[in-house]
Sequence to fold (347 residues):
Amino acid sequence: MISLKWKKWGSVLVSGALALSLTACGGSGSSKEASSGTKQKDPAYPEKAISINAPSGAGGGLDTTARSLTKVLAETGMVKQPMTVENKPGGGQAVGLADFISQDPKDPYRLYLPSVPLLINNLRKEANSPYSYKDLTPLAQLTKDYGAIVVPANSKYKDLKTLFADLKKNPESFTLAGGSAPGSQDHLVAMLPAVKAGVAATKIKYVSYDGGGEAMIALLGGNADFLATDISGTGEYLKAGKVRVLGVSSPERLKGDYADIPTYKEEGINAEFTIWRGLFGPKEMPKYAVDYWNKTLTEMTQKPEWKTVLETNGWEDGYKNSADFKKFLEEQEVLVQEILESLNMQK
Fold:
C-alpha cells in the first residue's frame, strides 16, 4: 500500500518536475525570442560633425549649394552638429566621387553633393568614372535648373525653329559653345532638342570652355554661333540686353525674368532636360540616417531661409525625397543614354 502510494506520489512529482522543466524551457525560449525579436533601438543621430563632399572648386554651383544647405540647417537649428564642406574638384566631378566611394560605405556622417555629370560620366564613352548613383544612397534632390539655347542679341535667329531649320540644312557650318566637355552636361542641353528635331547633331562643331562664364564670353566675342548653358547663368546678360534665349528645357514656362522664353516643347520639339543638384549618402548608409535626412530636408525646404536661397541664386525648388529622387535618376539615366547613343558617344 505504502509502495503504491509512493509510486503514485513519485509519479506526480516527476510529472510536476517535468512540467516545470518544460515551462522553464518554454519561458526561456520565449524570453530569447522576445530578446532576439525585439528591434534594437537606433543610435542617436547625428552626434558628431558631418562633412559634405562638393566635387567642384570653391565658388562653383555645387559648392554654393552645399554651403547654402549647411548654412540654412545651422541657422534654423535643424542640425545642431557642425557641418563642413570639402571641395574635391577635377574630372567633371569624377575625382570627388572616387574619393567619396573609396571611404567607409556605411559611414552616415559623410555626404556627397553632385549634379547631372554623376550620370553622364558613367555612361559616356570617353568618361572617366566607373561609378554611378547606384554606388550611392540617394537622399534628396535639392534644386533644379534647366538648359537654355542662347544666341547674341544681334543674331538673326529669333526663335528655335528657325535656328534648327538651318542646322538641318547645314549643321557643319555652325559652332556651338558650352562650359563642359563634349558629351557632358552643356553639350547634351543642345544635342537633345537637335536630335529630336532631326538635326545631324554629330556634324555640329562643339567647342568646350572651362565653365559657362568663359563659354558666354566666347559667344559674345563672336567665336560661336550659339551657346548651350543653364538658364540661371543667363540672367544678367539677358537683363543687360546682350543675349537672346531661344528656348529652355523646362516642362513649362518659367517665371520672373524668364517668363517670355518658350520651352523646347512650345517650339515643336518634344524634349525636356532637368539640371539637378542632389544630396547622397554612402552606398550602405543605415536606414535610420536615411529616414533622418528625409524628415529634416523635407522640413527645411519649407523654411523661408531656404526659399530665400533659391530666389537669390535663381534656382528652382526641385525637392524630391529619397524614393522619388531614386526613381527620377533611373528615368534620367535612360534619357542620357539615348542622347549619347545618338551622338555615338555611349560606352
Q: What stands out?
A: The chain has a mean pLDDT of 88. The CA atoms of residues 37 and 259 lie 58 Å apart. DSSP finds eleven helices and ten strands in the chain. The longest strand covers residues 136-152.
